[in-house]
Write a structure and sequence with these properties.
6 helices, alpha/beta, 226 residues
Length: 226
């Protein structure tokens, strides 16, 4: 059994930054053991408004760069469909809900960040609402179904995942949207990949040349082969 319950990642001490670190470490571990066959690379906490990304903004944004636009997790898969090329670059926005957060975070939290990522040329977009173990399931259902209605109602090409941390040892996640089930992180990453592979689930802004140009710059920064 994997040792994923170190003190810094313990459920009792879990915060959103620690959750992102935990997910990143687990994905890297699974990749190391040959899981997620199409997965080529993983990044975390990439701020798109740093000097590193200045060439993406150069011909588009006039004046000082806006405040931090940070992508929690970036997944780079090989694209067997080759919709644009051999790469499928996906972004995940993660919002963690502890019991203390329920009065601070609304059901649409994180959606604005995901929509912002689309203008940088990501192929895939995803929003994850992750709920702490102690939160009642009827509360989670309210958040999950409302956010899902919003995303599906506007036909947004966003993979929305609402899960509750169910088992801290193997990090089992109980899913409320888009389906009711329980499984490990490995399952959800593969599910996400299958969703993104479908061309109609990709970022529709990639039909515009300027967005594709930004995607090419993004590939260079992330060291994705041409």
């Amino acid at each position: 059994m994997r040792n994923t319950d170190s003190s810094k990642y313990s459920i009792a001490n879990l915060t959103e930054p620690r959750l992102i670190n935990k997910l990143y470490d687990l994905i890297l571990e699974e990749k190391k053991w040959g899981k997620h066959g199409w997965l080529k690379n993983v990044y975390k906490n990439k701020n798109l408004t740093t000097k590193e990304f200045k060439n993406i903004w150069l011909k588009w944004w006039k004046g000082p760069l806006p405040p931090s636009t940070e992508v929690d997790i970036i997944l780079i898969f090989e694209d067997p469909m080759q919709v644009i090329d051999k790469a499928l670059i996906g972004s995940i926005e993660i919002e963690y809900f502890s019991s203390k957060d329920l009065n601070k975070k609304n059901f649409y939290v994180g959606l604005q960040q995901v929509l912002a990522f689309s203008i940088f040329g990501f192929d895939g977009l995803s929003l994850w609402h992750v709920f702490a173990p102690g939160i009642e399931e009827n509360v989670i259902e309210n958040y999950a179904t409302t956010a899902s209605e919003l995303i599906s109602g506007f036909k947004l090409p966003i993979f929305y995942l609402a899960v509750k941390i169910q088992n801290k040892e193997d990090f089992i996640l109980k899913c409320f949207e888009p389906a009711r089930l329980e499984n490990t992180l490995e399952y959800y990453i593969d599910w996400l990949n299958k969703y993104w592979i479908v061309e109609t689930n990709r970022n529709p802004l990639l039909q515009r040349n300027e967005i594709r140009n930004r995607r090419n710059l993004l590939k260079t920064i992330l060291k994705v082969p041409v």
